[in-house]
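Researcher: Going back to the complex we discussed earlier. I've cleaned up the inputs and rechecked each line, so this should be the final set. Can you rerun the prediction on the complete assembly and write out the structure?
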Amino acid sequence: MQNVLIIGATSAIAQAVARQFAERGANLVLWARSAEKMGIVASDLRTRYQAKVVIEAFDFVDFSHHAPALDRAIAAHGELHAAILCHGSLGDQAASQADFSVTDQELLTNCRSALSFLTLLANRFEQQGHGTIAVISSVAGDRGRQSNYVYGTAKAALNTFAQGLRNRLYSKGVHVLTVKPGFVDTPHDRSPAKRARSSPPPDRVARDIIRAIDREQCVLYTPWFWRWIMLIINLIPEPIFRKLKL
Amino acid sequence: MLPFGLGRSYGDSCLNDGGDLLVTEELKHLLAFDAERGMMRCEAGVTLDELLRFIVPRGWFLPVTPGTKFITVGGAIANDIHGKNHHRAGTFGCHVTKFELLRSTGERLICSPTENTAQFAATIGGLGLTGLITWAEFQLLRIENSMIDVEELQFANLDEFFAISAESDADFAYTVSWVDCLAEGPSLGRGIFMRGNHARGDSLSHRLHRPPRLGVPVEFPDFALNQYSIQAFNTLYYAKALEAFSRKIVHYDPFFYPLDAVNHWNRIYGRRGFFQYQFVIPFSGDRKVIREIFQRIAASGQGSFLAVLKTFGERRSPGMLSFPAPGLTLALDFANQGWETLSLFNELDQVVLATGGRIYPAKDARMPARVFQECYPRWEEFRQYIDPAFSSSFWRRVNSPV
Ligand SMILES: Cc1cc2nc3c(=O)[nH]c(=O)nc-3n(C[C@H](O)[C@H](O)[C@H](O)COP(=O)(O)OP(=O)(O)OC[C@H]3O[C@@H](n4cnc5c(N)ncnc54)[C@H](O)[C@@H]3O)c2cc1C
Ligand SMILES: NC(=O)c1ccc[n+]([C@@H]2O[C@H](COP(=O)([O-])OP(=O)(O)OC[C@H]3O[C@@H](n4cnc5c(N)ncnc54)[C@H](OP(=O)(O)O)[C@@H]3O)[C@@H](O)[C@H]2O)c1
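Model: Rerun complete. Updated structure for the full complex:
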């Protein structure tokens, strides 16, 4: 993986992925909405690993920016070998329930912006005939639950979209990876309940992601035991599931 | 609110009962490193552990390090920490060239010996009260390998300690002594003197430290530590240096950070926990005073596992409330025996104050306001630099009118 694009580069998981790629000597292009935060992330990568890092800050809901940003990313170090989508927000389920405009905003951030990136990347990688696209989804997309089904809907749409792309691009030499993290210790969700569960650090999740990219895995649950937790959750019959407080 | 590093301060200076803590764990980025000059700039939540992992393989070391590597750069500045090289290198603050201070108004101040000098002086040793340090720049120390060339010498009493100390300070970058506080009579103040230098030569190991492998899984019952078990431990420890003199080359990790090898070592003190007590007294008349202090501790029957004695040097820190001053410093831990322990501390306070000494806030959970104000006469001058939105449990205790 020589040239890697990281979308949502200020996310804790993205930072850990970027560090591990930089440690292997990759050249990076970082995208995020906050120039200031991303500048600090880039300085860290340059200081620790002497990495070649190019950054571009823009709001991901500004779709007109997507295609020209991708052109500049390719111009920076040459053809991309991998692109990883990391941005996302847990949102506010109660507020989304009360007001569809909040739901709409959540879908825009977590899903539609990502679908636009995926469309552009898929076409570009198809043309070049190689490359890996990894998209960070969530176990929350596997089954709708009352506590966060708006976020879950966005992730479920990403899952299906990525699955379709994987199928479409397989014969073109392009690989698509769907990453489904369980709980990870990041600012994404800092509720006391979650902290008490002692979630794994983002470094561990990043290691799993990079290994899955190397092995061309299709769907990654990380940490691994989430695969089995979700298997059980998915097996619960809906008439029973609807009664659960989840 | 109050910035929070890794909470390795022993008392309430890192706590803010009823208020908010600004957790700095996301401030962990390295911002710039000049490999030629050894100048490091990093965010304030970077730990010394992480720094060592980066700098040691590049031939650099921390300019000053405390007895644990699990503290942050922000905590090192806010308590203006000292190490075994104080007699030569001064405090951590002596090596800080610049930092950014974020105030609750959103204002960002670049502080250095030439810019915003008053905030620079107030923040070094400023107990986190002047604002949030977001990043800092400091000078590292060149090393040729990861090893320390160490000598250990037994001393049978305090006079021998002073003799060894006098001959060591000039030739050894690091000096520290462990003292058996339960020994009385002619053995009063017996102990082991450790002195060392960074080993020379490129052929020695450059290896890094490893993560802790041992741990104390549960709190010990309260009866586990008592006068007899501590006496036994201290006697064995003293006997460990069976030869009166030994020399060896050891890795920096066991030399600087022996407690880091055991996760949750504090649990051996059980539920009730323990207190630390550290003071410095000026060199003048120190023999009589330190002897009196050891006598009082021995007489109280309250043992200390780790009594650490060291000389502080002349190098002055820019910090307004910085603890170290030229003289003799002693750090003690005491299992919490409630009232008995606290009244021993009150007695020791009087001896320390009478000789013009002071007590270390980073290791304090009980000093009364009067004692703090007498130890740190510049505290009133300091008050004007406190961020109006910042406070700590410690500060509310010592800032009250007497
Ligand atoms: C085993 C052990 C050995 C030790 N040995 C020594 C020693 O040899 N010498 C010595 O001097 N000390 C020693 N200490 C004490 C320790 O070095 C200090 O208490 C240190 O300040 C702890 O740093 P921390 O990052 O855990 O900060 P905390 O304990 O969390 O906070 C300490 C202070 O720093 C402030 N602070 C933290 N981050 C920031 C920031 N970003 N901006 C502004 N203020 C901030 C806090 O508000 C608080 O006032 C030792 C402690 C232990 C546990
Ligand atoms: N942490 C978990 O427990 C967990 C579990 C399952 C799935 N995930 C998924 O993992 C991915 C990474 O999450 P994380 O845990 O690393 O979270 P994080 O540290 O909170 O990062 C979230 C990132 O999304 C960015 N972002 C949010 N809204 C944006 C917008 N409108 N435009 C541009 N960027 C936006 C944020 O940018 P700013 O820095 O500018 O705010 C930030 O970089 C996300 O897709 C998340 O859904 C996380």
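Model: Worth noting: The interface with chain B takes residues 12, 40-41, 43-44, 47-48, 187 of chain A (CB under 8 Å).
Researcher: Good, that matches what I expected from the previous run.
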